[in-house]
Every structure is written in structure tokens, then in C-alpha cells.
Design goal:
The complex is a heterodimer. Chain A is mostly helical. Chain A contains five helices and two strands; from the N terminus they run αααββαα. Chain A folds into two domains: about 1-30; about 35-105, no CATH class. The N and C termini of chain A lie far apart (about 45 Å). The chains are: A mainly alpha, B mainly alpha.
Chain lengths: ~110, ~240
């Protein structure tokens, strides 16, 4: 592929990536949002985080099947407890990495 | 809060420092993923400059992985663009939720800011906005630092990626660890816990039943709606 081939491909991809990110913000930031919508949107972060995380812990991506034995899940339990106890983002990231590294050695 | 004087140098360094302090877990997590993308892209025949161009024009990790795979498989340009659109539709939801904290901010700022809305920057910025002491400039630093590291990592992957051992120091778990902790920060009451649990169940079931990536948007919208309805019912009963 030549430079211009790549350029047009990435320009197209960039556009369809940018528009979903920018249009709601441009539109909604200058509107008086109704209270129900603010209440609903306040539940979006927890829902999105959970929806991003859960399949990576409970699903074997290769076979797209349910699994309770993934090292990601086993490491997530002490990592979660650490996060609940310390509420430290940096600490949780490092503890999670360390335990996952250990799991890679021993499992 | 929005009228901060960003020309004041001490304030400006505060903004940079606090933005960087919030962004580093993202940067750490992006590094191995960016390297991996670079390696795959190189195998698919993309040069470093093409990967740089892609990471600058399309700041969207999962869509970039899919693009590389589709290029390797000889897919057509329209089909790659269409797939990118579908994969990135979830950001409409995140963009909408951010609007609550960026109400009334000028369009130019929002146009620049929204370029950097990713799953990770969204999660970090929403948590910080909710905690308070956070503003749009710090949020912008988070977006752009993450983007810079992403560009660097993906390009580095094409050049030296094959020499880096995989899975060193458990770095592959950085983003998972970050999401776990950010999820804990979000649990500020029973309704949030319930919504999170619903989203977890919905997303796993959705993921297992429906191919593709629709599970993120689908499960989030269903769980938030159900959570909202339950909260309203509970309130009315009281």
C-alpha cells in the first residue's frame, strides 16, 4: 500500500472514531440536561467499567466460553481486596501486576 | 472553575503534574499493548510511519488491532472503516456522560478534548471529576499524555517490539488492575454496586451469546437503565 492508500484508510477510520466521541459532547454540553438524564448518566461509568472488566475475567476469549479458572480472575480477587482496603490506584496497579507476574510463574 | 488562568506558570505546572499523576497507570498499561500492536502491524507489512500515522489519526486501540488483522487478511477499505465505526460507537456513551462535567465549555476546547476520549481516559477522568478538585485542563492532560505514550509505544513496537519479552513484570495486567480500582472508586452506594453487578452479568452473557463488541454498549445501557428504574422506584416508595 502507498502513502495515500494508508492516508485515506486512516482518515476514514479517524473520522468514524472522532465523530462518536465529539458529537454527543458538543451537543449535550450546551444543553440543560433533564434531571433523569443526569441520574441515568451518573450510572454509566460504573456500568461501563464493569462491562469492560467482567468478560476479561470470566470469559475464555479463545473459545468464547465461560470460565472460572483464568489467572486474570484469580489475581483479580486479592487485587480487588487491596483496592477496597487502600483505595490507592497506583498501589492497586502495581500489586495486580506483581501478582499476575507471580501467577504466570506458578500457574 | 472554568475560568482558571492557564497563563500562570505555577498553576500550569500543577495542572501538568496532577494530570500526569492521574494518567500514569494508563501510560503503563498502554505500553505493552502498543508494542504488541506495533509487532503485529510490522508482520502485516505496515511500516513504522504508517503505524505512526494510524495512531495519530485513529487513537483507538481495539479498532487499530482489528484494522491490522483485517489488512493482513486482505479486507477492503470500506469494510475496515465500517468495522471501526461499529467498534467505536461505545464512545458516544462515554462522551455523553462527560458532558455533565463539561457543561458550557467552549466548542473549540471540546473538539480538541473529545479526540482523546478512550475507555481508559474516560474511566480516569470520570473518577477524578466525581472526587472533585478536577477540571477540564487536567482532564485534557490525561487524554494527551495517554495519546502520546500510545503513539510512541506503537511506533516502538514496529522497530524493537520483537526483542521485548512478552508479559515481563506482569505489565499486561496494568489496565485490568486500573479498571478494578476505578470500579471500586465508583461504588458509592448500593445502587452503584447493583448496577455494576448487573453490568457484569449482562456483559458476560452478551459476550457469550452475541459475536462482536456490542456487549460493552449493550450491557452498560441495560444495567444503567435498570439501575436507574430501581432507584426511582425505591425513592417513590419512601
Amino acid at each position: 500500500m502507498t502513502f495515500s492508500d494508508y492516508f485515506f484508510l486512516f482518515a476514514g477510520m479517524g473520522l468514524v472514531t472522532y465523530l462518536p466521541r465529539t458529537l454527543p459532547l458538543l451537543y449535550l454540553a450546551h444543553k440543560q440536561l433533564p434531571q433523569w438524564m443526569i441520574d441515568w448518566l451518573s450510572l454509566i461509568p460504573v456500568a461501563v467499567l464493569s462491562a469492560l472488566l467482567a468478560p476479561s475475567l470470566f470469559v475464555d476469549a479463545e473459545h468464547r466460553s465461560f470460565s472460572l479458572g483464568k489467572p486474570e480472575l484469580i489475581v483479580a480477587i486479592p487485587t480487588l481486596i487491596f483496592a477496597l482496603k487502600t483505595r490507592s490506584l497506583g498501589g492497586t496497579v502495581l500489586v495486580g501486576m506483581f501478582l499476575y507476574w507471580l501467577a504466570g510463574i506458578f500457574m | 472553575m472554568d475560568q482558571r488562568d492557564t497563563s500562570n506558570p505555577s498553576l500550569r505546572s500543577d495542572i501538568l503534574r496532577q494530570g500526569a499523576a492521574a494518567a500514569w497507570p494508563i501510560c503503563l498499561g498502554y505500553f505493552p499493548i502498543g508494542l504488541a500492536l506495533g509487532v503485529l502491524a510490522r508482520q502485516a507489512g505496515l511500516h513504522w510511519w504508517a503505524v505512526a500515522l494510524m495512531s495519530i489519526m485513529v487513537f483507538a486501540g481495539s479498532a487499530q488491532f482489528i484494522c491490522v488483522a483485517m489488512l493482513a487478511a486482505g479486507a477492503s477499505v470500506p469494510s475496515i472503516i465500517f468495522t471501526t465505526l461499529v467498534v467505536n460507537l461505545r464512545h458516544t456513551l462515554m462522551s455523553s456522560a462527560l458532558a455533565v462535567y463539561l457543561a458550557g465549555v467552549n466548542q473549540k476546547f471540546l473538539a480538541v478534548f473529545s479526540y482523546g476520549i478512550t475507555d481508559e481516559s474516560f474511566a480516569v477522568n470520570m473518577t477524578q471529576f466525581k472526587k472533585g478538585h478536577w477540571d477540564r485542563w487536567r482532564a485534557l492532560v490525561v487524554n494527551h499524555l495517554a495519546n502520546s505514550v500510545w503513539i510512541l509505544a506503537t511506533v516502538a513496537g514496529t522497530l524493537v517490539g520483537q526483542f521485548v519479552p512478552q508479559g515481563a513484570f506482569g505489565i499486561d495486567y496494568a489496565l485490568t488492575g486500573m479498571f478494578i480500582c476505578l470500579l471500586v472508586f465508583q461504588l458509592q452506594g448500593r445502587i452503584y454496586l447493583l448496577t455494576g453487578l448487573l453490568a457484569a452479568v449482562f456483559s458476560v452473557v452478551w459476550y457469550l451469546l452475541i459475536p462482536g463488541d456490542s456487549y460493552i454498549v449493550g450491557a452498560s445501557v441495560c444495567a444503567a437503565t435498570l439501575g436507574y428504574l430501581l432507584k426511582r422506584r425505591y425513592r417513590r416508595k419512601k
